[in-house]
Amino acid sequence: MTAIVSPADATTHPEPQWTAALFILLGASVWGISWYPYRLLAGWGLGSMVASSMTGAAAAILAAVLLRRHFHTFQWSWLIPALGLAAGVTNAGFVWGTVHGTVMRVLLLFYLTPVWTALLARLWLHERLGWRGGVLLALALSGAVMMLWSGDAGTPWPGSAAEWAGLIAGFAFACNNVLSRLVGQRHPTMRPEMRTVVVFTGCACVGFPAALLFDGVRAVPAALAQGTTWILVAAMACVLVGGNALVQRGLQRLPANRAALLMLFEIVVAAVSSALLTSETLSAHEMAGGACIILAGALSGLSRRK
C-alpha cells in the first residue's frame, strides 16, 4: 500500500490537478485488483506470503534501480526500519487476508485505517482530534460493529484469521502513514521516492519470515519450476512499482485530503473484481456497515479541507 505524503513533500507543478487525480485512481485500482494474482500464485502452490515476499523483493530491486539517482538524498534514522516494518506488516496482512478470506470483508476492515490514523496522530504527532474527528471515529466503528455482528460468532469481532489479518493490516497502514509524515518532517531533504524503496524492502523482509510461519513450503519448489510463476511475479513487481510511482506523483500535486478520498476508489475496484471473479457476496447488514466505514473515510478527508 501507499502512504500519504506530508505537506512538506508537496511541490508546485504545472500539470493540471485532474491528471494527478487520474494517477491516484489508477494507483488505487492496482491495489483493488492485486488480490487476484496473489490468489493465482497461491493456487499454483507458491503460498500467499512467499508470493508477497518475492514480489516485494523484486519490486524493491526494480525501484532501487529506477530511483538510484535519488539515493544521495537518503538519510538514516530509526524511522526508516520502523517505516519498513509497518509497510511489511501492512502488505503481509492485506495479502494473506484477501487470499484466505472474503475480499470485501477483509478490505473494509482494512479501511478502518482513518480510526487508527487519527488516534496515532494524536499520540505521536500531537494533532487534535476535535469533536468532528470523534464523530467520524464513532461512525467508522459503528459500521465495523454492524458489519461484524452478522458473522457466525454473534459478536462484533473478526470471525476468521483472514479478517484479523485485514484489521491488523489497517492498523499497520495507519502506522505507515504517520511514520511517513514523521520522515517527511524530520528529513525534509530526503526525496519521497526513497520511501518507495523502503516500503518494498520492508514487504520482502517481513514476507519471508511470515512465509516460514504461515505458509506450507512443500509445494514451493514445484511452483518455482513453472515459468508462469516467475512471469507473474515479475509482472506484479512492475505493476506495483508503477502503481506506487503514479500515486506518489499524484500525492505531490493534490492536497492529502483529496488524495485520501480518491484512494477509496480501491474499494470500488475490489467490489467489482470480487463480484466478477469470485462467488463471494455480502449481506445487507455487511453492506450497510461497509457503507458507514466508507462514509467515515470520505468525511474524514472532507473535514480536513481548509
Automatic annotation (TrEMBL):
Keywords: Membrane, Transmembrane, Transmembrane helix. It is a multi-pass membrane protein. InterPro entries: AA-Vitamin_Transporters, EamA_dom, EmrE-like. Pfam families: EamA (PF00892). The keyword Transmembrane applies. It is found in: Membrane. Its main location: membrane. Coiled coil: none annotated. The chain crosses the membrane at residues 20-38, 44-66, 78-97, 103-124, 131-149, 161-184, 196-217, 229-247, 259-277, 283-302. Residues 19-148, 164-298 form the EamA domain. It comes from the Bacteria. GO terms for cellular component: membrane. Belongs to the EamA transporter family. This is EamA domain-containing protein.
